[in-house]
Amino acid sequence: MPSYKLTYYNGRGLGELIRLTFVAAGVEYEDKRVNKTEWEELKPNVAVRTMPFLEVDGSIIGQSLTIARYVARQHGLMPMDNLQQALVEQIVDTVTDFRLEIFKAVFEFDEVRKVLLGTPLDFYAPAYPLYGYNSQPLRTDITGSSPSLGWSNNTSTTTSRWNFNTHFGSLTCPAEVSPTTQGEMMKKLNNETIPKYLDILEGILLSNLGGESFFIGESMTLADICVFDGFNIPLEKKLISLKEHPLLDSHYKRIEALPKISEWLEKRPKSEY
Ligand SMILES: N[C@@H](CCC(=O)N[C@@H](CS)C(=O)NCC(=O)O)C(=O)O
Q1: Is the CB of residue 64 below 6 angstroms from any atom belonging to ligand 1?
Q2: 64 CA distance to ligand 1 centroid (A)?
Q3: Is the beta carbon of 51 within 6 A of some atom in ligand 1?
Q4: In this predicted model, what pLDDT tens digit does every residue of 197-255 receive, in sequence order?
Q5: pTM for the complete prediction?
Q6: Fewest Cβ atoms nearer than 10 Å: which of 9, 41, 199, 256?
Q7: Measured between alpha carbons, how far is 186 from 159 in angstroms, rounded to an integer?
Q8: Whole-number Cα distances in Å, 142 to 105, 172, 177, 183
């Protein structure tokens, strides 16, 4: 068996699906967690210049989903049949779309882009807290009440300001960001986007063996792990609820209770995102 070393920030973010895939397959790997400075030193060795990346016997693979699919194919978590494989990948890509929708609303992407325009910060800077690079709350309410993580369903009209000092060192945020845009985006996320994706995923689950087992076929695949991982942080932050989607709810609990997974959930380093 090849030797595997996975490198990522000390958070769940885009690395956790790969970790969970290794765990579910029962395969040993090195779970290397680095800080921003260490990453900058490693970056020139990584062709795609992003984390997570996986070292396999001297080769380096980037792109989290490429890595997760590779690990799944290598270790029995991807069907052999091409069509079944495509059905698994369809779910992986749908969960990715779902995560992106959540990300856009929660991080008020357009507003952030406006603020960052012309600064030397890289495009992904607003995502760092999400991916565990900085575990501080992303937003601070200037009214002085307890800090909001930006994950609540809060549509309040209180003016908030991105606390750039907390997150991006000495840079200050020149603009006040009205919560209105985020309020609107969160409303759409809650009323339309989340129910739409949960309905889609529950429909697919239901179509396989009545929804009582796995997403595709008769055994666990990357699809099951990916749905579990995609729901994990949003559930924890109470951004989504599976109460009205009982099949997804029991699927989540089944995956969570699998001995290898539950052992990992218990022992993995705690992280905000
Ligand atoms: N599509 C890529 C995105 C990877 C990505 O954006 N990673 C971030 C950290 S979560 C990154 O490495 N950003 C550039 C940097 O930190 O230098 C994937 O899924 O792996």
Answers
A1: yes
A2: 8
A3: yes
A4: 999 999 999 999 999 999 999 999 999 999 999 999 999 988 899 999 999 999 999 99
A5: 0.79
A6: 41
A7: 16
A8: 20, 15, 11, 17
